[in-house]
Amino acid sequence: MLFNLDGAVADLHRDGHRAAFNAAFAAHGLPVRWDVEQYRHALRIRDDRRRIAAALRRRGYGRDSAALAAEVLRTKDALFERCVLDGDVSPRPGLIDLVTSLFVAGIDVAVVSTGARSWVEPLVRQLIGDGLAATVVSRDDLTVVGPDPDVYGHALWELGLPPEHALAVESSAAGLSAATAAKLTTLVVTTPYTAGQDFTGAAAVRHRYDEPQPLRASGCVALHRRWLVANG
């Protein structure tokens, strides 16, 4: 099984990116601090710089908003690694039990991310421990990094598996698109930020790993088999 670190393993938007944005605003002395609900609304603007500029314009910064937003974003990017590794980032409820059941069943686990190896690998160890992930793929493992880096393809190559022998776990419509582009059967486990998105093409959609019925290796195998039979 291949898990996207950002969303499927941990809610990095809520606990990582949001914290880094707030730290950057504070570093620039700006009166902006996004709580969980405010950040959910802010994410309607997908571009980071435009999102910051919109928040600044609402607070009266006018024409200075665009230039100031660029400075805040540079600071946020510089602070992100520390905010993630030293902050309050935890695995999603039920994930560790699922990963443990996969390990016991002899099913390899991979974690993929478009982030930098400098924080991806230590965060994976911090979240799920050493030895449970057979491979961790970051953008630094790719020879070509475009707007949609093929971290899934690289993970499959490292595992020595064709896509039909693997199941991806994503949390967003964009992630689902990336996984299905790699020809992977995909389970979506939403976050509060992605629950209303369009997940057409997913093998299944659930909101948590631990509810209503805890997800385990046997359930993942059955889901994967049903999807392949229905769509083969």
TrEMBL record:
Keywords in alphabetical order, please. Hydrolase
Q: Does the keyword Hydrolase apply?
A: yes
Which InterPro entries does the UniProt record give? CbbY-like, HAD-like_sf, HAD-SF_hydro_IA, HAD_sf, PGP-like_dom2
GO molecular function terms listed in the Swiss-Prot or TrEMBL record: hydrolase activity
The coiled-coil segments of this chain are none
Which protein, by its recorded name, is this? Answer: HAD-superfamily hydrolase
The record lists the organism as Mycolicibacterium thermoresistibile (strain ATCC 19527 / DSM 44167 / CIP 105390 / JCM 6362 / NCTC 10409 / 316)
Taxonomy of the source species: Bacteria, Bacillati, Actinomycetota, Actinomycetes, Mycobacteriales
